[in-house]
Structures are given as structure tokens and as C-alpha cells.
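<instruction>
Derive C-alpha cells from the sequence
<data>
Labelled lines for chain and fold
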Amino acid sequence: MLIAKIFSALIMVCIYGYGGYIVIKGNMTLGTLLAFQEYTTMFIGPCINIIRANNRIQQTKVSIDRVYFLLDEESDIKINDKGYKLLKGNINEIEFKDVYFKYLNKEKADSNYVLKDINLMFKKGATSAIVGESGCGKTTLVNLIYRFWDVNEGKILIDGINIKDINLLTLRKSISVVSQDILMLDDSIRNNIILSSTINDEEILRICEVVGLTDFVKGLKDGLDTVIGEKGVKISGGQRQRISIARALVNDNDILVFDEATSALDNISQAYILKNMKKYMQDKIVIIIAHRLSTIKDADNIYVLHNGKIVESGNKEELKLNDGIYNKLVKADA
């Protein structure tokens, strides 16, 4: 773009420089010079547009190549109608048994394990937390439940059934994930909460009360019909997280995963939401990934991850008795 502008400016300089000289010599009238300049501008404009279009075409080509690269990538995990189908309300426990996992790296076959010798249990009606330093494998561990990848060694069992033998569609429909990276549609608050669910406004407002959205919605001219813009740009990060939590509660799935779900909220708002959600979590498997330890103060069991291994586990009081990594995290969070 800069080259095109410079080129255009140079042409104008040449026209007025040389043309002015000819006019002074009496070989051309001023009107002819101005007419020539106008016709030149009319010619240069489309030429510059062609250059711009070529730049856009090249950028688009790169994007298309990336899309086709992803589409052509073979997936080891196939979505089909095979496998044991999970029934809503019937999931009681998830167990990791001697699990090892590493990301496949074609250039480096001996890449290190991200998770090593993982043994843990998530039970229905209990809240389990996973804590640890950044990059220790917390989110990876939860993604294995969603079966984005298969483990390299060991097993993940749901009610004693290997996750590889479970119908993938019913597995993923059983899990609600509230993460830091929130998907927001350029649509109304109502549609962002319910997505494909069919519930009435009374139920939506009841859930809005749980997550602290009621006053916000009532203060808007269009209420639940307020359009929040692409990626939710018209509302704050805290309101986006509230909508995401409300969406998870509306889905009413058996497994709830909160991955830094309240990171954009202040401590008072966080405490309000966590208190209100307790009755919704009584018959669920609840997994919380947290950096801010105030989020997990009421967790039934806390697993501490360090360098891909579970190094400590227990409730808050039990872990405080050990002079371990959990206590270091508590001090750092204070």
C-alpha cells in the first residue's frame, strides 16, 4: 500500500513538473495540463485497486490454505454412532488410571510427557479442584475427558467403562465447559444463554439471578433481547463469564468443568455466584481448574499438579498440614 501511494505521488510530481515546464514554454495550455492530470488520476485509481486486490487475494490464499490443511488433517478420533451411549443423569464417576499423555510431535518423536502417572477420581455430587502452576497440565487433563486426544498409556474410565469405548457424541453432550476463552455470538443475551435449548424466559431469568445477571438485564432497554455484538464486545468480560456460566447451567449436563470461569469477576461477585450454584451442582461431577484459590475453598478434593504429576491431594485443611506446593500456592495467592 505504501509503495502504491509513493508511486502515485511520483507520477503527480512528474506530471506537474514536466507539464508545468511545457506550459511555461508555451507548448501546452494550462487547461490541457489539468485535463491530462485528471485522466491520469482516473487511470491510476483502478491500477492501484488492482494492486490492492492482489494483496487481498494473496492474504486470502494463505487463509484458504490453512483451512484446507486443517480439513485434510486426519483425525485419530472418529465421530460416529458406535460405542456405549451415556444416559443423562447416569454418570457417577470418572477415573484416571495410570495415565500418561504427550502431544504428538512428528518432528520430535521422543517429546516429553505432559501428564505422567495420573491417578485420580471425580465423583458425582462432589466438587474436585485441580491446581498448580501455569503450564503444569491442568487444562490438558480436562481436555482428555472431552477426548480431544487419547492417552498414550493407562485408561480413563467413566463408571468403569473405558472412554475409548463410549459413544463420542453422547460423551461430549454430557460435558459443559466454562473456560476463559468464551464463545459469544453476535446475537441476543437470550440466545447466547440458551443456544439450542428450549426453555422459557422465566427459567432464563431464574438462572440469571443465580449468576448475578438480573440487575444487568433489567437495566437494559431491550432486556434479554439486547444484542451483545461480535464476541460480546458490547458487554464487559465479567458479564460474558456470567453468560457462559448461565449457559452451562441451562444445559444441565452431568459433568461441569470450570476452567478459570470467574477470572474476570471480583471476589464478592465470585463468592455470590459460587454460593448460588451449589444446589445446581449437587448431582453433578464438578471439576474446577483454578489459579485463584478462593474459587476452590469449598472443594471436596483438591489435586495439586506439578510438572505433569499429581503430587498432593486432599481437602483444603488436609493440604494445609503439609508443607508442600499447595501451601506455596496459598502464600502466592495471598
